[in-house]
Write a structure and sequence with these properties.
about 70% helix, mainly alpha
Length: about 325
């Protein structure tokens, strides 16, 4: 029983980390703490000869302690420790001038560490948006199952609201249209963000990767994912009510609730469901292609246009 309980706790911790990220480290650690005993003088020499690389390595070591996954944190810490140990043991560190080969080695290792940290941020963003979309889709399924199984009209009967055949079909059509619109929004976000993780991460961190922890990025994207699903619901329901109210006459509905409830309505129900499923999906999919998730202010043409306008304004004021 004890082993089973331990396994269950480990499984829960793994699931929590996959969704929420690793817990925050309560004990901060600095680059100087990685210096082996007896290497303090070499570390001081490293600070004076390679100050830029030392600061970059220190920043990357701090970022590694905020990584999204615990295994990534451990791997990055081991890598930083190995790099620092190799430099402090290198005989060229005692040269009067910085050694070109040693500087190249530090540059390549720092670039590799930065790429791994960027990949961890991208993973946090992707994990967050996927969890948010999955949660929103699950809520949508529940919202669809309840009226389909219990019956939306049945819920109104409990409130003693009389509904007829046409009202029942209208209510069920609204639920189905909105639910399919939610899944259309999910697909829209996934298609749009498939190759946009880099831009999305930059937008979320305002261009500074170290400003926001990956766990915070994941939390923000979970909220964004759920929000996008409900945007699909709202858009699909809005289109449904607009078409049913007759404000838009460009689209001919193949079947109406009144026609379905008629005696000679054979096959009209299938056309009704197919039509509103298609309308709901298109409405949800057209949620402006995940507008708001991507930072369009960073586009080169817009940046250039803003710079030109600012220059013109400054010239006019002068």
């Amino acid at each position: 029983m004890g082993d089973y309980g331990g396994f269950r706790r480990t499984w829960r911790q793994t699931l929590r980390e996959a969704v929420l990220g690793a817990r925050t480290d309560t004990k901060a650690d600095g680059l100087a703490n990685l210096v082996e005993p007896g290497r303090e003088t070499a570390y001081e020499r490293f600070e004076s000869v390679y100050p830029k690389q030392q600061v970059q390595l220190q920043l990357l070591y701090g970022a590694s302690q905020r990584a999204f996954e615990s295994q990534t944190r451990q791997s990055l810490r081991i890598t930083v420790g190995s790099v620092l140990s190799n430099v402090l043991r290198d005989g060229r560190l005692t040269d009067t001038e910085p050694d070109r080969h040693l500087a190249d080695y530090l540059g390549k290792e720092i670039s590799g560490l930065r790429a791994r940290i960027d990949q961890d941020c991208a993973l946090a963003v992707s994990r967050g948006i996927n969890v948010g979309l999955s949660l929103g889709a699950l809520i949508s399924v529940v919202l669809l199952i309840v009226p389909l199984v219990v019956g939306a009209a049945g819920l109104l009967d409990l409130l003693r609201v009389d509904v007829g055949c046409t009202d029942r079909w209208s209510l069920m059509g609204a639920f189905v249209c909105g639910g399919v619109g939610a899944f259309g929004a999910v697909l829209s976000v996934l298609v749009r963000l498939r190759n946009s993780g880099e831009e999305l991460t930059r937008r979320r961190t305002n261009g500074d990767r170290g400003a926001v922890a990956p766990g915070q990025l994941a939390r923000g994207m979970r909220h964004e994912g759920v929000y996008r699903v409900f945007v699909g619901w709202i858009l699909a329901l809005a289109v449904y009510f607009l078409l049913n109210a007759g404000f838009i006459t460009l689209v001919d509905m193949p079947a109406t609730p009144a026609e379905i409830c008629a005696d000679n309505a054979e096959g009209q129900g299938t056309a009704f469901w197919g039509f509103w499923c298609a309308i709901g999906f298109l409405a949800g999919f057209n949620e402006r292609w995940a507008f708001g998730l991507l930072d369009r202010s960073n586009r080169p043409d817009r940046t250039a246009r803003s710079t030109t306008q600012a220059s013109a304004t400054e010239s006019n004021s002068t």
